[in-house]
Specification:
Blueprint lengths: L2 H12 L3 H33 L2 H21 L1 H7 L4 H10 L4 H56 L3 H24 L6 H25 L5 H27 L3 E2 L2 E2 L11 H4 L2 H11 L14 H23 L9 H5 L2 H24 L1 E2 L2 H21 L8 H34 L3 E2 L17 E4 L1 H4 L11 E4 L1
Parallel strand pairs: 3-4
Antiparallel strand pairs: 1-2, 5-6
Helix pairs in contact: 3-4, 3-5, 3-8, 5-8, 6-7, 6-8, 9-11, 9-12, 9-14, 11-12, 12-16, 14-15, 14-16, 15-16
Length: about 475
Amino acid sequence: MTSADFVDMENSNCGGGPFGRVVRWLKAVPERSWGKVLEAASEAKKLGEDDPRRIVHSFKVGLALTLVSLFYYYRPLYDGFGVDAMWAVLTVIVVFEFSVGATLGKGINRMLATLLAGALAVGVHHISTLWGGEVGEPILIAFFVFVVAASVTFMRFFPTLKARYDYGMLIFILTFSMVSVSGYRETQVLDMAHKRLSTIAIGSCTPIMVCICICPVWIGVDLHNLVAGNMEKLGDFMEGFGFEYFDIKENGLSLSDNQSFLQQYKSVLSSKSLEETMANLARWEPGHGGFKFGHPWEKYLNVGSQTRQCAYKIEALNTYLNTDIQVPAEIRSKIQEPCINICTESGKALKELAAALKKMTRSSSADSHIACSKAAVESLKLSLKRGIWKDANLLETIPSAAVASLLIEVVACVEKIAEAVHELASVAHFKTEQPQLLQEPVLSEEYHVAITIDRNSTERLPKNGSSDGITTNV
């Protein structure tokens, strides 16, 4: 009997009814499960390779939880805090974030909110006990809970408070309500508030110390690199757009074969919320590296805003690379030279600004590129004023005219970006980049200069001072 016969017998035994389908599904379960396991392992490997700091962060969270868990395992510590030690464990889980700024922000917010709310709740309990009596005490407590919860909740709508203290205000409402309400049935309210504050302080300080001391992730550095990287992406686009639009080839190969750099700018368009979040968290971080305490993080938002304005113009330029309207080459060629100069010089200026920002130096090399791009703009405007497309079809000239107009606006945006970067460098006290001085050529002493005057030619010397007839030998 062959293997095919065994397969036929198995299929006949399973049948084609519901029971057969269930059997086939059960047989396929291990294969599908193994495929999902491999897919999850591949995704986990990719996440770790994209940013190895994620793996380190996972180990740091595990270490912090292990340290705080000693309050439960070690008997003397457990006797001091009791069941309230669980608040330390919960605080570690809630407070520990990926970056130092986020962890510090949450930890400080939680400790201050717990301290203030606990003190206020103890005061409310004392006032309610003295003035309310047995009947009026729950009424007074309920009144204070309503007023405090409503007031703090309304304060959370203020943008400045919400940006930095939203989590703290939320914890304030939670702690005040729990201590006030539970204090009605508890006699040792002060002891309960003390234990709650102590465990939360321990649970907040533990992740802060672990996050700072072990492979710290500074959100300010990430913001610094993000803003510089966004400018560099725009520079890559501008340098490639001119060659792409006018279909210029190098070494016989078209530059349009690789268009990946023409799509990188798209991430700049949606970077506003990320930059604002990172700037708010960076304010909590202590001084580190070249970033001192009180570093002007708000200036990065100004640079990012100007960069996005430029990205919007670039988004409009990009539409003319994929348009269905074909513009004749002879129409585009009339503005090719100034447009190429604008794209090249603007791209170089953006890259120079990005490089200077990354190195935290003041560089004036970008200003020369901006000056060249402005000169190219003036040349383009003169060409347009002379009416270079007089005899051309109007519909065919509109796309090229739109591109020229957008390039003029891009130069203005690049100039504003440069001003924002220079302002940031001035406020943050970046180092001044030393220009490279060219050495003057020095003649050796062994060289001599001999001047020979032809007597015959001196009589014919012209009155304008011409040096014909005078020979110089070195």
